[in-house]
Specification:
By secondary structure, the protein is of the alpha/beta class. Helices cover 43% and strands 14% of the residues. It is built from eight helices and six strands. The strands form two sheets. It has a four-stranded parallel beta sheet, covered by helices on one side. Strands 5-6 form a two-stranded parallel sheet.
Length: 184
């Protein structure tokens, strides 16, 4: 709660030091004091599925997002789906929003078995023979359902293709973490 009160004051002071700049809120938020601003929206799950977020996050974001929209000159979404959601949900002008899919550098490309061996071997994994899920472990990622589905696979397949979860612990992660250890 203190963060929500202090952060806007800190950002306002920082923005005063760089007049005529463009502020980019990479996760929807635009602080007071931003003269020109762009915000990126990843999704509207806070509105569509509030049950998958902590109540304090829902409360904060449902106040902060409309305030950020009033400050925004332009919006970016990471998908066309989210662009349409923002247009529909907030009645945002079409000429002030654009979908720009997330991109990666050339470093992210398929690697050979020889290139991955040093990383995978200590983990007991083989190139091309594992299933990977990268996500914060929290209810809205539905890791529990993934683990249930994986547990239904024949044991031979689970041994040949172990499921690897990679991601930080999130809100209400305890149950998913417990399921992880019992199904792999």
């Amino acid at each position: 709660m203190a963060y929500a009160l202090i952060w806007p004051v800190v950002m306002r002071q920082r923005l005063r030091r760089v007049p005529d700049s463009l502020y980019h809120g990479t996760n929807f938020y635009i602080p007071p004091g931003a003269d020109r601003a762009v915000a990126t929206f990843h999704d509207l799950s806070i509105y569509r599925y509030p049950e998958f977020h902590p109540a304090s996050r829902v409360e904060f974001m449902q106040r902060a997002i409309p305030a950020s929209l009033k400050r925004a000159d332009f919006l970016i979404t990471v998908s066309e789906f989210t662009r349409r959601e923002v247009l529909d949900y907030f009645g945002w002008p079409q000429d002030r929003i654009r979908a720009i899919p997330l991109g990666v550098t050339a470093h992210y490309h398929p690697h050979s078995a020889q290139q991955t061996q040093a990383t995978l071997a200590p983990l007991g994994l083989q190139h091309g023979q594992y299933a990977l899920c990268t996500a914060t472990i929290e209810p809205r990622k539905n890791i529990e359902r993934l683990l249930q589905a994986y547990a239904l696979q024949p044991i031979a397949d689970r041994r040949r293709y172990p499921l690897v979860l990679a991601g930080g612990r999130g809100w209400k992660d305890r149950k998913s973490t417990r399921l992880n250890s019992s199904h792999t």
